[in-house]
Amino acid sequence: MSKEQFIKGRGAQLNVSNRFHEHSHEQRDDFLNYCASEGEEPEKTKTSIIETFPKSIVNKVTSPDVGMDYSLNPYQGCEHGCIYCYARNSHEYWGYSAGLDFEKKILVKRNAVELLEKKLKSKGWQAKPIVLSGNTDCYQPIEKDLKITRSLLQTFLKYRHPVGMITKNALIQRDLDVLKELAQDNLVSVAISITSLKEDTRRILEPRTATIKKRLETVQKLAEANVPVTVMMAPIIPSINNHEIMPLVKEVAERGARRVGYTIVRLNGAIGEIFTDWIRKAMPDRADKVLHQIENIHGGSLNDSRFGTRMKGEGEFAKQVEQQFRIARKLYLKDLQRPMLNCKLHADYKDGQMKLF
């Protein structure tokens, strides 16, 4: 595919049909040819922000594979545009496509802080870590202006409630002041996602994320502030980044990461079609090889929903990845214990201030 036809700054290169819609539409070749001849874009690439006001904000996580009990997502959709993102499928529940719509139509939960505070003050709630974000990144670009995630962190601090964070955006450095206070009472842990040490790989896989340099800097600054930080190499994609396991673990360990984790790519639901279209356009020379290797990891299919195997895969490739991580951890990391956050303080702060009697 010519460079002129590739949508720069976006991961997905098309909008796939929403499985919940009765009707679907497609772009015909004659329309695309017309756009090319007229110098017009077949898809509007500008991001739109859609305000929502949900009735609840804290979600119970039932999957045994993800290592969290509760999650909170202030945003739905994600402008980062990571081509492999499992969260793309969730955009269909809002009536949009898992493809370009996921990156361009960002739903903002304007009453997120109010709902969290209501939850933390409720009599029936007992403190358990709530993770920002289990689905879409809480530090995606719009957060710079809206500061919803910062307000949520301040709410967790006010009520002395444990919170976990997952992000691949260096914007988290803005909130180091709040994170330091939370860390003093062992109320926070952070996972930074770093898929590759190569900027060219990052740019094509995750077009609107923070650079690798900024993410490594973020790991180091969090560690220096005594905020427990884990690095997630997620996902590992065969023939794209699996050769980087050892150097990546070494690098993040030197920056102060306490733990490393990983997942292997899985292309569930609409993501299979989106990823296949993307790799044939972005990496045509190796597309078939990568797709066949992913199928071999997941029992002959791009789509794998089996609990217990879907995150790590199976077969020879999966075994090799597991072995490499085992060796890397032994060589470069000393603290492999998952940080246990403090759930004991919250009961004394349910009204927003410590009980004196």
UniProtKB/TrEMBL annotation:
<dbReference type="Pfam" id="PF04055">
    <property type="entry name" value="Radical_SAM"/>
</dbReference>
<keyword id="KW-0411">Iron-sulfur</keyword>
<keyword id="KW-0479">Metal-binding</keyword>
<dbReference type="InterPro" id="IPR007197">
    <property type="entry name" value="rSAM"/>
</dbReference>
<protein>
    <submittedName>
        <fullName>PA0069 family radical SAM protein</fullName>
    </submittedName>
</protein>
<dbReference type="GO" id="GO:0003824">
    <property type="term" value="F:catalytic activity"/>
</dbReference>
<dbReference type="GO" id="GO:0046872">
    <property type="term" value="F:metal ion binding"/>
</dbReference>
<feature type="domain" description="Radical SAM core">
    <location>
        <begin position="64"/>
        <end position="301"/>
    </location>
</feature>
<dbReference type="InterPro" id="IPR040086">
    <property type="entry name" value="MJ0683-like"/>
</dbReference>
<dbReference type="InterPro" id="IPR058240">
    <property type="entry name" value="rSAM_sf"/>
</dbReference>
<keyword id="KW-0408">Iron</keyword>
<dbReference type="InterPro" id="IPR006638">
    <property type="entry name" value="Elp3/MiaA/NifB-like_rSAM"/>
</dbReference>
<dbReference type="GO" id="GO:0051536">
    <property type="term" value="F:iron-sulfur cluster binding"/>
</dbReference>
